[in-house]
Write a structure and sequence with these properties.
Blueprint lengths: L4 H8 L3 E2 L5 E4 L5 E2 L1 H8 L3 H11 L11 H9 L4 H7 L4 H15 L1
Antiparallel strand pairs: 1-2, 2-3
């Protein structure tokens, strides 16, 4: 796994779902590219970009829907994006338990 994967995506394009639900990546210039195009640019599979979008998804106020520690764990390479996407579907208290398990495994 490319450990700074989420950071590269988040910093480069800010992957997400637009309000119409179409999968795209709003860019700094106000243009958007598809997740397929993003995958090509980042040299990863489309599924990886889709999973990263799940992990980086934000609410209407711009807050991440996952606990920040989960994003940091992906960026450190402690958990795969695919596993983080699964954990992102859990309630925050269970996301914290995932982080605790990861941290227990590192010590």
């Amino acid at each position: 796994m490319d450990s700074p994967f989420l950071a590269r995506i988040h910093q480069k394009e800010n992957i997400g779902l637009n309000r119409k639900g179409a999968r795209d990546i709003p860019s700094i210039e106000g243009m958007s590219i598809s997740q397929t195009e993003a995958a090509k640019l980042l040299n990863v599979g489309v599924a990886s970009v889709e999973r990263a979008a799940v992990v980086l998804k934000k609410d209407d106020e711009g807050n991440h829907l996952v606990v920040p520690e989960l994003i940091a764990a992906v960026d450190r390479g402690d958990i795969a994006v695919s596993q983080a996407a699964k954990a992102a579907k859990l309630e925050p208290e269970f996301q914290h338990k995932v982080i605790e398990a990861i941290e227990a495994g590192r010590t």
